[in-house]
């Protein structure tokens, strides 16, 4: 028997508008095992295409195809090859970057990041979890990777009724992988680092910030030192802050590895430290704010907005007139306009008018599928304090 799912009119309309997800409430009937690839039938008995079925998630169906296209080996290989060719066309000056960005590469719930010869993969739905063993050899074929690590530990897997684990699924994966991003080299721990090891989505924003960097720089929420290390050669002095002692150790290690003697990392809570620096009368020519997602869900939005405003306000006060603030939000639940408004409110309260120098987002290797807002999460504004 062919696994099938029947959806209602609202689901069909969503699909017509280009969104690949069908919620549980729009599914009328299912005859399939959890994680199966199903044929989806519309309200007028019309065959709509194939989708991944999840029995646990609110997102019941993730569309793979529209219409009659077969889901066979050549289908998967073509989708993988298309995603990889796009990255090759970008001339990325780094050995670590995203190869497959899930829905935006029409490979729903599959993440593949490249760290030199190693691939780090995440399967974030029941369907992708089931398919992963089949896809891994094809990923290896098309990249020549020597090892593949499944970082299947994100919390979202719980919503799919999937366990959280990390395992090598092909070849060998060393404890640490050496990668390069522009002129900066890193030693990455793909098993335990945040995300899949590095914040690859910020690479192009770090690069963009280079042209404005000078004088004394404060890099807040620095993690492995992403912004601090890339900007250091343009600055006199770089201070990097992170709340995690391990991150601070890593920043110092990476600074030494790159021969950057003007980078000093310290363990601090950015909220407290910005206040302290202000009390001390410190001033900077550039400040970077790249906090973790404050709004992990809708309910957290008001508190998150207050948090974003607070750090932006404090940072603008510490900035010299003519100085630059690189301010980011990776909260999907706070959209671009809302984020810009928060920064504006902060500038009003700080009595620090700013001009927008650049409006940026996640790097091009993390594409945004227009009409699918879930694929657009990282906002980055580069603003200049005018007076
Ligand atoms: N800017 C980094 C990525 C930042 S990720 C890059 O370019 O790679 C967010 C970081 O913020 C994490 O390393 C986390 O440890 C740190 N963090 C979270 N809350 C913090 C706080 N209140 N004060 C300082 N650091 C914090």
- How much helicity do the residues have? 25-40%
User: How much strand content do the residues show?
Assistant: 25-35%
Radius of gyration from the CA trace? 22 Å
**What is the element string, with H for helices and E for strands?**
EHEEEEEHEEEHEEEEHEHEHEHEHEHEE
Number of strands: 20
- Helices, by number, come to 9
User: Alpha-carbon distance between the termini?
Assistant: 70 Å
Provide the residue-averaged pLDDT: 97
Task: Give the cofactors and ligands.
Answer: S-adenosyl-L-homocysteine
- By secondary-structure content and strand pairing, the structural class works out as alpha/beta
Global morphology: globular
Low-confidence stretches: none
> What characterizes the major β-sheet?
7 strands, mixed
Polypeptide structure, described:
With 387 residues, this protein is α/β, with parallel strands linked by helices. 29% of the residues lie in helices and 30% in strands. The chain contains 9 helices and 20 strands. It has helices spanning 9-16, 73-89, 126-143, 203-210, 226-231, 245-257, 270-279, 301-318, 336-349; strands at 4-7, 21-23, 27-31, 37-41, 47-53, 59-63, 96-101, 110-115, 118-123, 147-152, 165-171, 177-181, 184-188, 216-220, 237-242, 263-267, 284-289, 319-329, 354-361, 379-385. It has a 7-stranded mixed sheet with strand order 16-15-14-17-18-20-19, sandwiched between helices. Strands 2-6-5-4-1-3 form a 6-stranded mixed sheet. Helix 2 (73-89) packs across helix 3 (126-143), helix 7 runs parallel beside helix 8 (301-318) and helix 8 crosses helix 9. The termini are far apart. The model has no long low-confidence stretch (mean pLDDT 97). S-adenosyl-L-homocysteine is lined by residues 199, 202, 221-224, 226-227, 241-244, 247, 269-271, 290-292.
